[in-house]
Amino acid sequence: MLTKKGGYNVQQSNAYILIFTAIMTIIVGGLLSIASQGLAPAQKKSIELDTKTQILASVMDREELGKMKPDEILAKYHQRIVSLVVDINGEEVTTNEKGGEMVAEEVNILKNYKKSPEERHYPVYKYVSENNADKVEAYILPLYGAGLWNSIWGYVALKSDLNTIGGTSFDHTGETPGLGARITSPEIQNRYVGKKIYDESGKLVSVDMVKGEGNSGLNEHQVDGMSGATITGRGLNDMLKSYLNHYQSYFKKINVGATAKL
Questions:
Q1: How far apart are CA 51 and CA 59, in angstroms?
Q2: What is the pLDDT of residues 179-238, one digit of tens each?
Q3: How far apart are CA 261 and CA 246, in angstroms?
Q4: I want to staple 179 with a disulfide (CB 3.0 to 4.6 A). Which of 96, 110, 228, 253 is the partner?
Q5: Are residues 64 and 15 in the same domain?
Q6: Judging by DSSP bridges, how do beta strands 208-209 and 136-146 pair with one another?
Q7: Alpha-carbon distance 147 to 167, whole Å?
C-alpha cells in the first residue's frame, strides 16, 4: 500500500531523488573528465619542465637556471642533454614494456624503485659540450630512496672521469622544515661537488654525509652533515651508494676516464 505525504507519493519522490542524483553524477563526472583531458597537456608540460629543470640543476648554476624562462630551459635541455636507458647489466634498453620507443625522461623512477634492482630501467642523461655533442662533460643519474618521513630523490652528476661528483640536485616529499628539508638547498647540495666515489683501490665507497654539522677533517668521500637530521642524511647515503652501485656495469662498458678504476 502506498502512502502519501504532503500530497506526494513517497515512492515516486524517492525515485525522483535517485534519478536526479544519477543524472547529476553523470553530468559532474563528464565535466570533470573534460576538464581533466583539457588540463592534461599543461600538466604534462609542467611535469616535463620540473624534471628537466632538476636534471639541469645538477650541472648548471642554479641562479642562472632560475632566471631562465620555461621555453629557454627546455631549449637548453634539448641542446645539452642526450639521454638513454640501460639495464642492470649496462646494456641499452631501446623498447619499453608496450613495445614502443624507450624514452629516458618517461621512465617512472618511483615505479622502478618498487621493482627489484634486476628488473629496473636506469636512465642516463649525458651532459654534452655546447660546441661538441660527442664530448660528454658529465653523466647525470637519477636517485630514489627514503628519508625520515617519506620519499627522497634527486640526481647526481659525475664528471667524465666517472669518479668526481660535479653536482647534485635533491628533493623530498615531507622532510622536516629547517632540518631534513635542507637537502633541497644549494648549501647542502654543493657540499658534494668535487667529492670522489671510488677509493684509491678502485672500490666504490660513494660519498657519506656524516653525523652532525661543523665537522672538521672530512676526507674526499665525506660531506658535512645536517644538525638534527641524522636519519635524512642516512637516507641520502643509502640512496646514493645504492644507485651508483646499480650503474657499475654501465660504467665498465663505457670505460671513460682515467681516474675511476673500474
A1: 14
A2: 999 999 999 999 999 999 999 999 999 999 999 999 999 999 999 999 999 999 999 999
A3: 16
A4: 228
A5: no
A6: unpaired
A7: 20
Q: Is the pTM of this model over 0.70?
A: yes
Residue 262 belongs to a domain = no
| Span 57-73, pLDDT tens digits | 999 988 888 899 999 99
Q: How many structural domains compose the chain?
A: 2
Q: Provide the residue range defining the domain that includes 35.
A: 10-43
- Using the predicted structure, report yes or no on whether residue 262 has a pLDDT greater than 50: no
Cell triple for 73: 630551459
22 with 103, same domain? no
SS3 labels along the chain: CCCEECCEEHHHHHHHHHHHHHHHHHHHHHHHHHHHHHHHHHHHHHHHHHHHHHHHHCCCCHHHHHHCCHHHHHHHHHHHEEEEEECCCCCECCECCCCCECCHHHCCHHHHHCCCHHHCCEEEEEEECCCCCCCEEEEEEEEEEECCCCEEEEEEEEECCCCEEEEEEEEECCCCCCCHHHHHCHHHHHHHCCCECECCCCCECCCEECCCCCCCCCCCCEECCCCCCHHHHHHHHHHHHHHHHHCHHHHHHHCCCCCCCC
Residue 139 lies in a domain: yes
Sort strands 222-223 and 208-209 into parallel, antiparallel or unpaired.
parallel
